[in-house]
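Crash report, auto-generated. Payload:
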Amino acid sequence: MQYLGAFSGNSPVIKRYKASATGYVPGIIMAASVAGASGQMSTSTTTAVTDTIGILLDNGNLQGASVLYSTTQGSEEAVFGVIVNPDAIIRAQMVTGATGTAVTAETVTTAASNGLTITATGAANFTSPEKDEGTVWYTSGANVGKSRKITSTAATVITVIVPFAANAVGDTFLSSGAAIGLRFVTTTTDLLKLRTDAINTSGAALAVIDLELNGTADSYAHLTYQDCVWNYTT
Amino acid sequence: MAELLLKKQWTRHTYLADQEVGGKKAGRAAGGWVSDLAAQKKVITLCQHCTHKFNPARVNYRKEKEFPVCQAKCDGCSTFDPYCSLYIADDLYTQVRSTAEERRALARSRETRIKQGFL
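Recovered output after restart:
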């Protein structure tokens, strides 16, 4: 994930915090450590960013090798830089799957002249995970570059209320559970990207404030923290 | 002129202060400390008084220009300053920062691809 800016327009506030474990990678969102943890920050998980403290900027590489968190006496303490602005705007690439491959492109199999439905093959399954209230956008055909909010789904059909132009068999499109104003996302296992094939009613508390709807490998979501430790914490 | 080199006498207080992390160790020259940070590809923040002494290109660092300043503790003089310069290791930069320049290029590419009929 990338630091994009802040709602307030303020300059980034950077702090150095103590790590609680190994495996930190620049670009992941860090959370405050729980009571009893060895350090001051821990990684988020794919479906939880409770008590967010900020986005990690480095992981202490030493000539190619990471400075590892260690509990051995005499070892260097793992202290890494974090941008801690609570109103940060974070940019994350949208991908498919836990490992983060390109967003799955679907192909229109039944034309809809009214532009209200998009029908794909049986393999698509827009209800599992549920993409209702998410976003759909075309990547080829008469509607290339156009997007709509999804208002209902069936296994192979996406329905919208604001019509597209008539589509045609063979047009390609992408869809995501993410949409403006939704407050939950799921990240890839490496915690660096946003999964489009995940439900949007639970998961990591990051709200979507904008979408860059491009192709399968260069679409992004802009996110903001919903559970930041510097604000009121639930 | 001859110079007496004496082993430093550590008190418990100065020893503990030296072990404290998150900043330059007691008695450590700022230049060496910043070089160590650069070798570890850690983010470097330098205040207005210290920033001109650091050459980011020499250690493959990039100065953050979209945000001219950041609020941080200076790695040179260990003072919190709301007008620090931010330096990020070049190979980590795109992993942690998105710039307007990059997004502008993507928008231009999008426009071109739409004209060609596919995204």
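Post-recovery validation: Residues 100-116 of chain B form the longest helix (17 residues).
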